[in-house]
UniProtKB/TrEMBL annotation:
One GO MF term: metal ion binding
EC number: 2.7.1.35
GO biological process, one term: thiamine biosynthetic process
Name of the molecule in the record: pyridoxal kinase
Enzyme class, UniProt record, top EC level: transferase
NCBIfam families the UniProt entry points to: HMP-P_kinase (TIGR00097), PRK12412.1 (NF009077), PRK12413.1 (NF009078), PRK12616.1 (NF009259)
The family this protein is said to belong to: Belongs to the ThiD family.
Reaction(s) this enzyme catalyzes, per UniProt: pyridoxal + ATP = pyridoxal 5'-phosphate + ADP + H(+)
Phylogenetic placement of the source organism: Bacteria, Bacillati, Bacillota, Bacilli, Bacillales
Keywords in alphabetical order: ATP-binding, Kinase, Magnesium, Metal-binding, Nucleotide-binding, Transferase
GO cellular component: cytosol
Chain ranges of the Pyridoxamine kinase/Phosphomethylpyrimidine kinase domain: 13-259
């Protein structure tokens, strides 16, 4: 049996709920073979309220990882925490060099539990180098506002405005994650393909155990694209997958609760 191959360019979440750990678990649940190019290692300080510390890897180490994976060949890829302009430029260069055409950009700007943008200049680099190469980009409300330069987004109309602006920057498809943060009675995301808007709705899950949800969603889309689904179908099925993961999230310690990456296949399918 031959598996479809996927790549994640992302950071390592030492606690296991997000980052490449979430991506690999999600890839496995979708029956694809996941490979990684690590940008950073994120640790959490148990003696300082789980404060996140980011430990970047060298650009040469990242490039060596990318050369390893891309020499094998991949069917789809995603990005997560990139962290610096130099890393974003390298990712864009490799996408072009290897003619990668199923590219999911998850524009990670902050660590879960932190509210400080990792490196503000990377937003401009994403706008300039990554959006035009994205098959689909998956910002949350904060990230969409930053990419579209609209400011805070609180309504569906605001999501539509941001989606149009992000599409105009070159992204072929945009999915803005409203989730439970939006002022709506459902957990709502907005999909835009440049022609029409589609609202994706699921019941809101009242939980704080949602660490890794964004990474899991983007990795599920990547897996679905690798497995031959069209973009809209890939996004719709990823929404079901991550909703189950959130529904069955659990407490890891007093600071964090991750989603359960295998919940859809175990309980919902």
């Amino acid at each position: 049996m031959t598996l479809k191959k996927t790549l994640t360019i992302a950071g390592s979440d030492t606690s296991g709920g997000a980052g490449i750990q979430a991506d690999l678990k999600t890839f496995q649940e979708h029956g694809v073979y996941g490979m990684t190019a690590l940008t950073t290692v994120v640790t959490m300080d148990p003696n300082n309220h789980w404060h996140h510390n980011v430990h970047p890897l060298s650009i040469d180490t990242l490039e060596a990882q990318l050369e390893t994976v891309l020499s094998v060949g991949i069917d789809a890829m995603k990005t997560g925490m990139l962290g610096t302009v130099e890393i974003i430029e390298l990712a864009a260069k490799k996408i072009d060099q290897f003619g990668l055409d199923k590219v999911v950009i998850d524009p990670v700007m902050v660590c879960k539990g932190e509210d400080e943008v990792l490196n503000p200049e990377t937003t401009d680099a994403m706008r300039e180098h990554l959006l035009q190469r994205a098959t689909v980009v998956t910002p949350n409300l904060f990230e969409a506002g930053q990419l579209a330069q609209t400011g805070p987004i609180k309504t569906i109309d605001g999501m539509k405005e941001a989606a149009k602006k992000i599409h105009d920057l070159g992204a072929k498809n945009v999915i803005i994650k409203g989730g439970k943060q939006l002022e709506h009675d459902k957990a709502l995301d907005l999909f835009y393909d440049g022609k029409e808007f589609t609202l994706l709705e699921e019941e809101k899950v009242e939980t704080s155990y949602n660490h890794g949800a964004g990474c899991t969603f983007a990795a599920a889309i990547t897996s679905n694209l690798a497995n031959g689904q069209d973009v809209k179908e890939a996004v719709q099925n990823a929404k079901k997958f991550v909703t189950a993961a959130i529904k069955h999230g659990f407490k890891l310690n007093e600071y964090v609760g991750p989603v359960m990456h295998g919940a859809y296949n175990r309980f919902e399918k």
